[in-house]
Design brief:
The protein is an alpha/beta fold. The chain has 20 helices and twelve strands. It starts with a strand and ends with a helix.
Length: 434
């Protein structure tokens, strides 16, 4: 089978390549608009254990033609664009973040047109390919691409699987054997049950055990009292919503934003690795470890400044989910593999349109991914999902039709933007800096 990665010069590509060793993928095609970054990543791959044959495409259509799977892992505007997405809202006193708040909306406005172009080219030259979307904001981008590709585009994220694995370990269970009920939108979901093979739900016991609950990342982020009040385990990104004041204060007091850190870090890595291609893999591994150690540093600073556990630093979330998804689709069988994915709602959450992208437990086989109906959502969770879905859809409308009113609506309706006047100023400032 053939796999294409769009954004082949991206920092996470070696993780995917490493996961492909011994898999059904025989050829990996890389495509990127930045030849320097692409050359560095090829040098990193050369230092890893042998995997599939690597080919560099001459253009987008060349990259897509003949592909069985296409990974979309692009960053429109690069890390410099992310810095602007963070700094413009912060200047107005509201959170700027890659996928959450005003920063996520700005990133979506810039990314959706490019993602739609990719979807149209896939439909034209590789209509049988499955597109696996890594590109953030993943829910918004996957929904835009699905308007062209339908169910043949599936969004993935490593946050839900990380939550499940951490919760299972804290409850004393094998993460590979537990069942789970998880539902929400990308970076806005809740783990509502954690079941053993014989059907026993471990979540109530975990919530009642203060030591176990406080032993892993989500327990430290949200606190045992709040998790018990919720009766579920939220995705780590919900910290920006539930503790918005504390997180905003931590972000504003930091010397640099996350985007600025990554801009400097990755800029230095690519420059050094380009000069020393024989050390590219070594430099990449050191940079990757630092990146994982500092992940969500602002939220951790807002809750005491604790360090991440060593088991959460391997960075192997996205690649494992992607490989499991590809294998389930390519298996030729029906049923069997369950993964948390971003797919069309199809009645899973009755209050949302059928074509709205949700993040939930799916059954995957050669026909694709189908969401499974879970327990009904509580009013608080459903209300937040409905509001954020309105933001995502307005973002897509604004990006497609160049509609300022839709863009203003997307920004002003976001729960982390506290005024339409603030939203208008953010929109004007972002437009001026573009």
């Amino acid at each position: 089978m053939r796999l294409t990665i769009l954004g082949g010069g991206g920092f996470r590509v070696p993780l995917v390549y490493g996961a492909l060793a011994g898999s059904e993928i025989t050829e990996l095609t890389l495509y990127d608009t930045d030849p320097v970054r692409l050359g560095v990543i090829r040098s990193v791959l050369a230092g890893l254990p042998p995997g599939p044959r690597v080919r560099v495409a001459d253009g987008l259509d060349d990259a897509l033609r003949g592909a069985d799977f296409v990974f979309s892992a692009i960053r429109v505007g690069g890390t410099a664009g992310r810095v602007r997405d963070e700094r413009v809202p912060l200047a107005e006193g509201v959170l700027g973040q890659e996928t959450v708040g005003a920063g996520g909306v700005l990133y979506g406005l810039r990314t959706v047109p490019v993602a739609l172009h990719i979807a149209e080219r896939v439909a034209a030259v590789a209509p049988d390919a499955w597109v696996i979307n890594f590109t953030n904001p993943a829910g918004t981008v996957t929904e835009a691409m699905a308007s062209v590709l339908g169910d043949r585009v599936i969004g993935i994220c490593d946050s839900p699987v990380g939550l499940v694995r951490r919760a299972a370990r804290a409850a004393g269970a094998d993460p590979d054997t537990v069942g789970y009920d998880y539902v929400g939108l990308n970076h806005l979901g809740w783990l509502r049950s954690l079941t053993t093979p014989d059907g026993r739900d471990l979540l109530p016991g975990l919530l009642a055990d203060s030591a176990a609950l406080g032993s892993f990342e989500e327990g430290k982020l949200f606190g045992t009292e709040w998790l018990r009040a919720l009766g579920s385990l939220p995705n780590e990104y919900l910290h920006y919503y539930y503790f918005r004041r504390e997180t905003l204060a931590a972000v504003r007091s930091a010397g640099e934003t996350r985007g600025e850190f990554l801009d400097h870090q990755q800029g230095e890595f690519f420059a050094r690795a380009a000069e020393h291609p024989d050390r590219a893999q070594e430099l990449w591994e050191a940079t990757r470890l630092e990146r994982e150690e500092t992940y969500m540093a602002d939220s951790r600073a807002a809750t005491g400044g604790w360090q991440r556990d060593s088991c959460d630093l391997d960075g192997g979330g996205y690649d494992r989910v992607a490989l499991a998804l590809m294998r389930a689709i390519a298996s030729g069988g029906f049923g069997g593999t369950r993964l948390i994915l971003n797919v069309r709602n199809a009645g899973t959450v009755p209050a949302l349109p059928d074509d709205a992208i949700v993040e939930t437990v799916c059954e995957v086989d050669s026909r694709g991914a189908r969401p499974l109906r879970g327990a009904p959502l509580g009013e608080a969770e459903l209300g937040l999902m409905l509001q954020l879905k309105a933001v995502e859809r307005a973002t897509i409308e604004a990006a497609v039709f160049k509609d300022r009113e839709a863009a203003l609506r997307a920004l002003a309706l976001h729960p982390l933007v506290d005024s339409p006047a603030v939203a208008a100023r953010i929109l004007d400032a972002a437009s001026a800096e573009a």
